Amino acid sequence: MVATQQLDDHIRDEGSVRAALRSPRRLKTEVLAGLVVALALVPEAISFSIIAGVDPRVGLFASFTMAVTIAFVGGRPAMISAATGAIALVVAPLSREYGLDYLIAAVLLAGVLQIVLSLLGVAKLMRFIPRSVMIGFVNALAILIFTAQLPHLIDVPALVYPMVAAGLLIMVFLSKLTTAIPAPLVAIVLLTAATVIFALNVPNVGDEGELPSSLPTWVIPNVPFTMDTLSIIAPYALAMALVGLLESLMTAKLVDDITDTHSDKTREGWGQGIANLVTGLFGGMGGCAMIGQTMINVKVSGARTRISTFLAGVFLLILVVGLGDIVALIPMAALVAVMIMVSVGTLDWHSIAPKTLRRMPRSETSVMLATVAVTVATHNLAYGVIVGVITAMVLFARRVAHLTEVVDVAHPDENTRIYKVRGELFFASSNDLIYQFDYVSDPENVVIDLSDSHIWDASTVATLDAITTKYAAKGKQAEIVGLNASSAERHVRLSGQMGAEH
Q1: What residue ranges in 138-270 does DSSP mark as E strands?
Q2: Least confident span in 59-63, 206-210, 441-445
Q3: Distance of CA 350 to CAs 241, 357, 359, Å?
Q4: What is the pLDDT of residues 170-225, one digit of tens each?
Q5: CA distance readout (Å), 231 to 90, 97, 115, 214
Q6: Which SS3 state, helix, strand or coil, does residue 240 take?
Q7: Where is the STAS domain (predicted)?
Q8: Which of 300, 303, 275 is nearest to 289 (CA)?
């Protein structure tokens, strides 16, 4: 079944690429989308390189190799992978303490780990991420995209503000008039032209860092191949692998929802691993799916195929190596305006509307807010998702635990009492079960009917053993009946093995 689905996805991907190549209109959309993404990638890659403590070229080359490679091996068409802030935060301590060679070695190991984890089925864990966490993830992303623009709006020339406003107005009104050309591209071109023609003194891309003047070359990290080296890079590589997989799979799911299409998450996972291997071999800092740029590509520009992803990488290399002098002139105000529009378009406004919040269960809102709060506080989407999932699990367990009850249902004779237990029995709900029986006053024979419940774990078996033991200590017999097949199998296998004495 899985192999059939993967084959169907592959055929559909190839068909969409061929259809785009045959359609001038669709191809134009893909090409222009790739160009807009490439322009937005330049300052982002430079800033992430600074965070990671490496030369800007390391982040730019990583973005090029990641985008081009994932276009061929990834499982989610039109998704953008490149150097990211989350990965930069993970590798920064390693880079500062041990240098670039150890960083590259960690990137290579992270790629191997991502391939292994994906083949072991880590993508299947996506099913355990609740919708409220996904909404929190999206809203936190929108906030982070917006706050990342604030440094470009503080202590800058006054002229920056009307330029940002002009960029926003161009994108808002042009998108209503036509979608033939991506509005962000028009805004970038017009504002850059105005900056050059009128010699405006505003911060530009060139101020962010030096652009490379040569192509990336093959690199083998100059580190000793010893266990000591492995002990240094392994923790960082594992963190990179997990953070990269989580962000990539979450982004893939988000694009699935936007485009109403299915993608192969396992392929996306090992594709990210291959992309990181290629990136490491060309001296890049590693990366994963870029959510902001993916939203520019898919939601703003309307791209739907691998063509846009591939061209984003190709255009990025052409821009920074071949046209670096021109790219350096792009005012940061134009790119800030683009990212603000992405932030506004990414936020799930419906989820924070007062009407929605009043209707939504408080537990769901709490999970969403926990995801947002941790993500914004740590600037790490992976941490926010993990905390959100844990919060959802705890609240779900607490809610289900309160649905369990013990009812005295019958007295067939003076020596027999029948109890019925209703609800799901697991560690949270079964702990109090032992206190809901009258061991002193009950007759000699007690029947505990579990036909309306289910045993989920060893804690429940231990609790049932404790109940029968307490009755036995009073000289009474407790019989457990009504178990379904799964519960009976678990009870028979574990009963008497759990140390039920309390």
Answers
A1: none
A2: 206-210
A3: 33, 9, 12
A4: 999 988 887 778 889 899 999 999 999 999 999 998 888 778 878 888 999 999 99
A5: 16, 14, 20, 34
A6: helix
A7: 414-502
A8: 275
Helix (H, G, I), strand (E, B) or coil at 422: strand
Instruction: Classify burial at 112, counting beta carbons within 10 Å of its beta carbon; exposed 0-12, middle 13-18, buried 19 or more.
Output: middle
Task: For residue 50, give both structure tokens.
Answer: 């600074």
Pull the structure tokens for residue 489. Answer: 């199998």
What is the number of helices (H) and of strands (E) in the chain?
A: 20, 6
Strand ranges in 263-394 using DSSP code E only, listed in sequence order: 288-289
Q: Rounded to whole angstroms, how far apart are CA atoms 6 and 399?
A: 38
Confidence of residue 3 (pLDDT cuts 50, 70, 90): low
Q: What integer is the mean pLDDT of 49-57? A: 84
Q: Where are the domains of the chain?
A: 2-149+209-330, 405-494
pTM across the whole model: 0.76
- Rounded to whole angstroms, the Cα distance separating 174 from 168 reads 10
CA-wise closest residue to 73 among 307, 243, 275, 266:
275
What CATH number was assigned to the domain covering residues 405-494?
3.30.750.24
The answer to whether the beta carbons of residues 188 and 334 sit under 8 Å apart is yes
CA dist 422 and 312 (Å) reads: 57
Alpha helices per DSSP H over 437-484: 458-473
- Continuous segment of H or E residues that includes residue 62: helix 56-73
